[in-house]
Amino acid sequence: MIYTLTTGYNLQLVTISILVAILASYTALDLSERVNAAQGQAQIGWLICGAATMGIGIWSMHFIGMLALRLPIAIHYNFWMVLASILPAVMASGLALFVMSRPFAWLPLLGGSFLMGSGIASMHYLGMAAMHIPASITYDLQVATFSVAIAIAISFIALLIVFRLREDRSLNHFRHKILSAIVMGAAIPTMHYTGLAAASFTSRTDMERSMLVNSENSALLAATVSIGTLIVLGGALLTSFFDRRLLASQESERQTQAQAQQLRESEAHLRQQTQELQATMQVLNQTQAQLVQSEKMSVLGQLVAGIAHEINNPVNFIHGNLPHVQNYARDLLRLLALYQQQYPDSSTEIQSLAAEIDLDFLQKDLIKTIDSMKVGTDRIRQIVLSLRNFSRIDESDCKAADIHEGLDNTIMILQHRLKAKKDRPEIAIIREYDYNLPLVECYPGQLNQVFMNILTNAIDALEEQHHKQSNHPTKGDSDRQGQITIRTSTIDSRWVQIDIADNGSGIPEAIQPKIFDPFFTTKPAGKGTGMGMSISYQIVKAKHHGEITCMSTPDLGTEFAIKIPICGDR
């Protein structure tokens, strides 16, 4: 007679199998993050390690679930088949981790779920085949098929959860991972116990009264497997934890180095722009000086206007970006200070680099350097504006202009020659302006050339006088400072007069009548062509229908008087 054996379960072992499933699920979720974060050989290493760890965890749950089964007969297992049943679990875990490491797509997700579920089902039924009992095992095909379907569905849910967690960057990520592990851990045993429910055990001997046989050995074996599994899963979690901390530390160091590098690059970029600007200004000054000395003021106006326009673009670019650079530098310095507060014990490499670049000094000096650069760009913009206002040579139309603006722009351009030098003191400019002076109908660019010629000659005369005094000092020379006085006034409401006087050595009376002759010069050969005053005379007389006169007293100075009609038909 054939008897159907009554089956039961050790609830303690069932509970342990579910807890192992939850822990294995959490480990799988954690290891999937490490596989996804790693690259190259490290990713392959995590994939192999994760597959082995997850496979052992899933297999342990199933094996403990097998040990929870209670039959009225002795249960033995084929050791080699039990070991062989681990392989499908490891392969299924490896496949799952591989799918998790790829970008999300429905086809790989469905295919991976099918293969992973099939692997888990294979592990289960291979484990059942490892049982050696004095009874026969038959399966309900529908229930067994349903258990395989459950395995595939659980695999699909598990993979989908991993993809959703990978996109989760919220503060509740850890809580979501715990809840996901509980859901997966509770679902995985469902397949196992559904598969056991599909099995029927029959015997020719009535053994209903031997229900608890071998239960103590099962409990001991389950405890051994549980402890071993906890060690494996715990080791994997600890390794993952320390790897995450190591990567976080390396990323923090990388960000700090990137910030320091960004600061250095920003400083180097600013320094390069400053050097280029200084080089451009040096070339501009040299070109201007050569043109002034050669007295080719018409060419000077054209070149200076073009250069001033070209240099105005990078100057405005630097000037406009400096406030942003100031804000960026302050933000980076605040971030760097916060990092130093949060991680005071940085790595030796960071400390060495900080000492090498003198990080403390850099933090203190960077903002000051940028502020000083802003002051410099403001000054350069002022000079460029003066150059552009001065260089109106392309303005062929007569227009109402401010005489004082033209004088001030010319003085600004000549400021470098007025400053004190190692061999002479500063040349003073005394302005005696009539601030009620009306606008004058004139050619501003050409009139600026006249101012430039007269002021340049006055500076040359004062420098020559100081040189003579240095070589042949006389009483009272040390108290005499070079100065240029500029006066403006209105005459009869019809004329504007500009007087430019210096206290230089003056012009000998014999050559004063020749001062406006073409190619006449009192300067050394190569320093002037003698056309400056001749051109100035033509501009005032022919272009403006005005007057220009020269009055000079040897050893006292020279004064030029320019009269321009306020309105006139030109």
What can you tell me about this protein's structure?
The protein has 570 residues and is of the alpha+beta class. It folds into 3 domains: 3-213, no CATH class; 253-390, no CATH class; 399-565, Heat Shock Protein 90 (2-Layer Sandwich), CATH 3.30.565. 66% of the residues lie in helices and 11% in strands. The strands form 5 sheets. It has a 5-stranded mixed sheet with strand order 9-11-12-14-13, with helices on one face. A 3-stranded antiparallel sheet has the order 1-7-6. Helix 2 crosses helix 5 (106-129) and helix 14 (444-471) packs antiparallel against helix 15. It starts with a strand and ends in a 5-residue tail after the last strand. Mean pLDDT is 76; it is low at 209-216.
- The portion of residues forming beta strands comes to 5-15%
How many individual domains? 3
What is the 3D form?
Answer: rod-shaped
How many separate helices? 15
Topology, number of strands = 14
Structural class: alpha+beta
Distance between the termini: 138 Å
Strand order of the largest sheet: 9-11-12-14-13
Low-confidence stretches: 209-216
Rg calculated over all Cα atoms: 48 Å
Q: Give average pLDDT, whole number.
A: 76
Task: Give the biggest beta sheet.
Answer: 5 strands, mixed
List SSEs in N-to-C order: EEHHEEHHHEEHHEHHHHEHHEEHEEHEE
- As a percent range, the share of helical residues equals 55-70%
